[in-house]
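Mods, move this if it's the wrong board.
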Amino acid sequence: MKKLITEEDVKAIEKQGSNVLIKTENCIVTPLALDRIRQRKIIIVEKSSSDINQTQNANLPIIKRIAIGSDHTGFKVKNFLLKYLSDKGYKLKDFGTFDEKSCDYPDYAKLVAESVSLGENDFGILIDATGIPSAITANKIKTIRAATCYSSYSAKSSRLHNNSNVLVIGAKSLGEETIKEIVDDYFSTDFEGGRHQKRLDKISEIESKQ
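Not the wrong board. Structure tokens:
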């Protein structure tokens, strides 16, 4: 029996902070769902049912795929987060930089943001000195909602209300324990939707006209 993918299913994917819809040969996408997929620029990834059965287990949590990058000022924090999050079971892709030689933050912010925008990773993390310039860069990429977070509250709010998909951290403005709290709260908080989705829709409309 064919499974219907409805507009509500697409909304549920958005609420999880993802822009990727996995479709098997047993799925039919409704016209309303297709409209929303086009409007939101959701990426459809086609997989066979056997692939899904082999990789999916209802009793296991969904593993978030995270792209991570930094400039030279965030190199040490990036390496710390690679171990911290890997130990928690997250799957990380390191986009550099790979040493402390002076480099340009836009290069790494672009790589991470594009990886998230294309659906290769679910979320991104960027680290520079203050967390500001990498966020400015990442937000130039369509569908990216990069948030510079400086506390547990700002991390939760950026996910709950803004459906942020790239977390940006200032290596020189935050201590290690604060950074741990920020990433823990960021990745454990889901988008609330509702009235906040209406506001994000307005952002998407502005973005589509650029």
